[in-house]
Amino acid sequence: MAHSIITVATMKGGSGKSTLASCLAVHWQLHGRRSAILDADPQCTIARLATREKALGGVAVIEDATDDAYKAAQRLVGSYDTVIIDTPGFRSQATLACLGVTDFVLVPVKPSPFDVDRMLDTLNVLINGVSGRRPMFRCVLTQTTRDSVIAKHIRSELAEAGFPVLDSEMTNRVVYAEAALWGATPTLLDKKGPAAREIAAIADEVEQICQSMSHVNRAAIA
After folding, report:
1. Euclidean distance between CA atoms 164 and 161, whole angstroms
2. What is the pLDDT, as a whole number, of residue 206?
3. Mean pLDDT of successive 10-residue segments in the chain (222 residues)?
4. Cα separation, 203 vs 94, whole angstroms
5. Cβ 33 vs Cβ 63: under 8 Å
6. For residues 16 and 216, what is the distance between their CA atoms, to the nearest angstrom?
7. 213, exposed or middle or buried, with CB in 10 Å at 0-12, 13-18, 19+?
8. Is 115 helix (H, G, I), strand (E, B) or coil?
C-alpha cells in the first residue's frame, strides 16, 4: 500500500468512526508504517485521546476542523505512509472536500436500521462522485454482537443493495472504552487479544483492496 489518504466518514454520529480511525492508525504504526491522523472533527475526539498517557503509541495527530482540512492531508501524505482523516459525524464542506482527495473511504455503520438509513446519505455522496471523481469505498460494521441476527441481516441488506462491505467487523467490546481511558487502543494493550485481531483483520482487508486498486490503475496507465 503506497502513500495513501484513507478517510473515515459517515453522516451519523456514534458509529465508532473515531475509534476505527485511531485503531487502524495505531495498528499500522506498530507494523512499521508511518501513520498520521488528521482530526477534522470539531469534537476533536482523537486529538484529546492523544493527550492521555499512552498518546496513541506515538501516532502523529494533527487538528484541522476547517474547510481546508483536505489541504493539510495532502501536505501530510508526503511525510507519512498513511494519513487517516477522521471527519465530522454530519454533512459538512470539510467532509466533502476530504472525500475529494482521498484514495479510499471507510464508512462505519452500526447494525441497526436507523444507522443504515443515515449512512445511505454518505453512500449516495460517494456513489454520485465528489469533485468529479468517485473514491473507492467499503462499509464496515461496528459495535456488532457476535453472530447476532440483526448484524447478519444488515450485512445481507447492504450487499443486496450493491454496497460493498468488509468481511471483517468491529465487535462491541468494553476494551475499546478501557483503552481510551489511557489514550490507547486495544492493540497497544494486548496485541494478541480478540479486539486487536479484529483490527488487524480490517487493516489487512483495506491493504488488500488498496493494493488491488493500485495494480488496476497501473495496468490502465500501461
Report:
1. 9
2. 95
3. 84 87 97 95 94 96 94 94 91 86 92 80 74 82 87 87 91 95 96 96 94 58 42
4. 25
5. no
6. 31
7. middle
8. helix
Cell of 138: 467499503
The three three-digit cell numbers of residue 195, written as one number: 479486539
**CATH code of the domain covering residue 129:** 3.40.50.300
Beta strands in 72-191 (DSSP E): 82-86, 104-109, 136-141
Q: What residue type is 6 in one-letter code? A: I
Radius of gyration of the chain (CA): 16
| Element containing residue 62 per DSSP (H, E) | strand 60-63
How many domains, in total, are found in the chain? 1
To the nearest 5 percent, what fractions of the chain are helix, strand and coil?
50, 15, 35
What values do phi and psi take at 138, rounded to 5?
-140, 140
Sheet holding 4-8, edge to edge: 60-63, 35-39, 82-86, 4-8, 104-109, 136-141
The single-letter code of the amino acid at 67 is D
User: DSSP per residue over 4-45, as a string?
Assistant: EEEEE--SSTTSSHHHHHHHHHHHHHHTT--EEEEE--TT-H
Residues near 200 by beta carbon (within 8 Å), at least 6 away in sequence: 27, 187
Its domain, for residue 209, covers 4-221
Cβ atoms of 166 and 198 within 8 Å: the answer is: no
